[in-house]
Q: What sequence folds into this?
């Protein structure tokens, strides 16, 4: 089976997930050379690419002929990524369902974050191959799960599980309006992983992705239920804290700093010491302000923290 998606090609290089908010891809189900409408594929299992966010309005149909995946252009699904082996993996079908088999790839095939050799796929499983993440949807559940997957892709960064920049900006606009009306303070923190480029340069971007995922997980565990944690772009994240004073914001971000710096990150390259710098802006509703203005203030203080030696909070 030859697969050649026609919009937002699956084999294209990685792009920032924030671009998803501005991307209006066409439905792109390619099955045996035929483009099929989403509504017509409810009885067939599919893959949906969720990271990088190139194809969000279509699915890749899986038929009984199997699907070879790799960097080699002869593969059914060719992924243009040096972290993908030439013949990386294959998806096959038997009477029990679809299976994914790793073909001894250098960086491995992960299902729900666990490296696998040969495993049966369950509907909703996340498949990671190099820097690409797909979601597997089984026959019979495609229609409902597909729309849920697209919604998640529009609101969350697939790599880290945090919210995306679009949601952050929308939330910040609402909180600014509430603050002006109710005179309640809000705090916005910008945070950036220290020396992240050296992690990628030394250990490769797959280890960098591991660091980003764990960074997002640790921060999420420290946030309060109504806080908005978002990946702003690259290794930079934002935390919106409604009804929060400067003192409270400093306490929360200091906890976040400690949860990153105090325990090494376990990665494929071994345990890595990671730290982050934080900058905080406070708004109390006294004058007009925009999300970008507050983010710029927080960003300036973030870079004050960087210049001051990193691994610190400036607010």
A:
């Amino acid at each position: 089976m030859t697969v050649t998606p026609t919009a937002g090609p699956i084999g294209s290089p990685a792009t920032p997930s924030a671009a998803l908010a501005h991307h209006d891809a066409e439905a792109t189900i390619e099955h045996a050379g035929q483009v099929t409408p989403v509504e017509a594929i409810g009885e067939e299992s599919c893959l949906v690419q969720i990271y990088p966010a190139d194809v969000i309005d279509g699915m890749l149909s899986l038929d009984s002929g199997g699907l070879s995946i790799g960097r080699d252009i002869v593969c059914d699904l060719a992924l243009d990524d040096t972290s993908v082996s030439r013949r990386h993996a294959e998806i096959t079908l038997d009477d029990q369902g679809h299976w994914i088999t790793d073909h001894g790839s250098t960086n491995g095939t992960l299902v729900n974050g666990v490296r696998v050799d040969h495993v049966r796929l369950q509907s909703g499983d996340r498949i990671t191959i190099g820097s690409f993440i797909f979601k597997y949807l089984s026959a019979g559940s495609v229609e409902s799960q597909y729309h849920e997957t697209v919604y998640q892709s529009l609101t969350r960064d697939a790599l880290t599980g945090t919210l995306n920049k679009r949601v952050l900006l929308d939330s910040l606009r609402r909180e600014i309006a509430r603050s002006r009306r109710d005179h309640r303070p809000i705090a916005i923190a910008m945070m950036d992983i220290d020396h992240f480029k050296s992690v990628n340069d030394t250990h490769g971007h797959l280890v960098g992705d591991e660091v980003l995922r764990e960074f997002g997980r640790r921060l999420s565990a420290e946030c309060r239920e109504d806080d908005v944690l978002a990946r702003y772009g690259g290794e930079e994240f934002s935390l919106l804290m409604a009804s929060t004073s400067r003192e409270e914001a400093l306490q929360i971000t200091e906890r976040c700093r400690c949860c990153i710096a105090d325990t090494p990150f376990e990665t494929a390259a071994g345990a890595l010491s990671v730290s982050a710098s934080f900058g905080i802006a406070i708004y109390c509703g006294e004058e007009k302000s925009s999300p970008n203005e507050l983010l710029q203030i927080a960003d300036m203080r973030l870079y004050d923290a960087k210049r001051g030696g990193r691994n610190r909070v400036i607010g």
